[in-house]
């Protein structure tokens, strides 16, 4: 995708990861250039979220290297990792807002924890971030009073509070109505460009992603099975990509979970 | 034969799991102590938890203390009167409360009111990825969430136990002096003469401090270690109450045998 390695913000080389005996990732190579919006797509349980956690340093790779801004994440100690995370923003699947704090306090949280800025300045910064996601008027609400889409936008404002170099999204479109989905999609693109940040988005919402991202990686069974720009993937004849983009129920990703033949199960099968 | 093997296997697995959890809890406690600095430097975090654990437990402590004292007054007078020692009611009530009932019953109530709330709160924060979000914001959840709740519990518990004992003495006085007619002067003067500050009161305070630390540690650990599902949270809450109650009763026996053995 990119030849100049110095332009890469995130780079994964032959990354493997296992939860105990269960291998999740089997040799992932992935590159994310600065300033781009990159989507990691794939079916549920294929290891997409694990990839984000490896990049954020919440998990350590069993083998291979995960580099962010030229530093090997696996080799960082806690202090160095926290230093790096101050320049990362992450949006969790359902927002993960602090339920005992108002919208304002949620967005102010990283600023208060990591800076000694006076209250007036923090207030202005929080209102600017909330304004960017269209929720300045909701500053005094509590998370329980927000809809799913609004909570996601507040979490987005919180993720960009410290103007991060890298913003990561874990299933940002899950469970949203079509309007909220479009709003979040546009915000992801606009905020990335406005902040000069880099975005990695884990999702399985293909239609929304094709409109806003620069590059897509498809993950299946712990490996990258396809990659390309949205236009390349739309034109792709690869059966795996075709099945995913056209939402075919059966194909390289089987409809049925592996099992013995149906007649065997029904006639000679085990007792209930 | 297979059944027996499975039983042994399950027993072994449960034992290994139990030992592993104790080890993990010990490491967790060390980590908690290491990251406790922020609870002191940003004291408002701890004060907030003292409010939630301590102030919001006041009602149940005050009411329970009063009723326990009243029951002690009734039962104590009934028994003492048989030996013609009804005037010693103040001694019986105050020693029972300061040495045993104050720390133990307040500890059990504290576990079921504040401990349970702390486990539920931390567990729910884990289930809804709030702890992960905090960690990804480069804010250590143990320093920011766990330690203030632990110290809030440690500080609240001795104060609640003292209040429980005070209310109990008041309840005993109410029944003994006001309703039954024990002499007011004898009630207080015998209590003053018999209760030793260092031996009775301070040992009670030490007990309540130990119970507070135990309950607070169990509560934060179970919340932090819970499986992030509805079922996991429910199991963690149950474990907090059951483990706290057993720990308080077992520790009470150990502390009592160390503090009061062979002395009167």
From TrEMBL, chain B:
Subcellular location: Cell inner membrane
Topology of this chain in the membrane: Multi-pass membrane protein
Any Pfam family hit: MlaE
Transmembrane domains' residue ranges: 50-74, 159-181, 201-224, 236-260
Record bears the keyword Cell membrane: yes
Keywords: Cell inner membrane, Cell membrane, Membrane, Transmembrane, Transmembrane helix, Transport
Domain of life, source organism: Bacteria
Keyword Transmembrane: yes
Assembly and binders: The complex is composed of two ATP-binding proteins (MlaF), two transmembrane proteins (MlaE), two cytoplasmic solute-binding proteins (MlaB) and six periplasmic solute-binding proteins (MlaD).
Described function: Part of the ABC transporter complex MlaFEDB, which is involved in a phospholipid transport pathway that maintains lipid asymmetry in the outer membrane by retrograde trafficking of phospholipids from the outer membrane to the inner membrane. Probably responsible for the translocation of the substrate across the membrane.
Family, per entry: Belongs to the MlaE permease family.
Name under which the protein is recorded: Intermembrane phospholipid transport system permease protein MlaE
Originating organism: Aromatoleum petrolei
Lineage of the organism: Bacteria, Pseudomonadati, Pseudomonadota, Betaproteobacteria, Rhodocyclales
């Amino acid at each position: 995708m990119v030849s100049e390695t110095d332009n890469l913000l995130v780079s994964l080389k032959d990354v493997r990861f296992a939860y105990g005996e269960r291998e999740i990732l089997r040799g992932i190579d992935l590159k994310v250039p600065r300033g781009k919006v990159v989507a990691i797509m794939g079916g549920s349980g294929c290891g997409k979220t694990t990839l984000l956690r490896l990049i954020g340093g919440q998990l350590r790779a069993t083998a291979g290297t995960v580099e962010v801004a030229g530093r090997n994440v696996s080799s960082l100690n806690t202090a160095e990792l926290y230093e790096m995370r101050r320049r990362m923003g992450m949006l969790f699947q359902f927002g993960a807002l602090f339920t005992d704090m108002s919208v304002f306090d949620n967005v102010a949280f990283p600023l208060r924890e990591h800076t000694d800025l006076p209250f007036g300045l923090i207030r202005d910064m929080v209102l600017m971030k909330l304004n960017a996601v269209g929720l300045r008027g909701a500053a005094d609400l509590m998370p329980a009073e927000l809809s799913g889409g609004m909570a996601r936008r507040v979490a987005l404002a919180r993720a960009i509070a410290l103007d991060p170099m890298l913003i990561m999204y874990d299933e940002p479109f899950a469970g949203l109505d079509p309007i909220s989905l479009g709003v979040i999609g546009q915000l992801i693109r606009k905020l990335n460009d406005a902040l000069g940040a880099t975005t990695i988005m884990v999702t399985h919402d293909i239609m929304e992603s094709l409109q806003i991202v620069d590059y897509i990686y498809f993950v299946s069974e712990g490996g990258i099975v396809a990659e390309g720009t949205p236009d390349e993937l739309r034109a792709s004849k690869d059966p795996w990509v075709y099945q995913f983009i056209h939402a075919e129920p059966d194909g390289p990703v089987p409809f049925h979970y592996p099992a013995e033949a149906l007649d065997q199960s029904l006639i000679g099968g085990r007792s209930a | 034969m297979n059944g027996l093997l499975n039983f042994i296997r399950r027993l072994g697995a449960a034992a290994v799991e139990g030992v592993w959890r104790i080890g993990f809890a010990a490491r967790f406690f060390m980590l908690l102590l290491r990251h406790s600095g922020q609870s002191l430097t940003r004291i408002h975090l701890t004060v907030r938890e003292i409010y939630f654990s301590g102030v919001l437990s006041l009602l149940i402590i005050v009411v329970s203390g009063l009723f326990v004292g009243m029951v002690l007054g009734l039962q104590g007078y009934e028994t003492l009167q048989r030996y013609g020692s009804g005037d010693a009611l103040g001694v019986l009530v105050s020693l029972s409360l300061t040495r045993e009932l104050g720390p133990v019953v307040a500890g059990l109530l504290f576990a079921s009111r504040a401990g349970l709330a702390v486990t539920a709160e931390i567990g729910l924060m884990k289930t809804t990825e709030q702890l992960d979000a905090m960690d990804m914001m480069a804010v250590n959840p143990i320093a920011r969430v766990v330690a203030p709740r632990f110290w809030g519990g440690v500080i609240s518990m001795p104060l609640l136990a003292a209040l429980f004992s005070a209310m109990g003495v008041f309840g005993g006085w109410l029944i003994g002096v006001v309703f039954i007619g024990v002499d007011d002067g004898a009630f207080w003067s015998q209590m003053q003469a018999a209760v030793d500050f260092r031996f009775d009161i301070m040992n009670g305070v030490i007990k309540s401090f130990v119970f507070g630390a135990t309950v607070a540690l169990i509560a934060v650990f179970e919340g932090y270690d819970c499986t992030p599902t509805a079922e996991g949270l429910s199991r963690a809450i149950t474990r907090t109450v059951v483990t706290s109650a057993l720990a308080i009763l077992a520790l009470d026996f150990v502390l009592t045998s160390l503090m009061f053995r062979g002395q009167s």
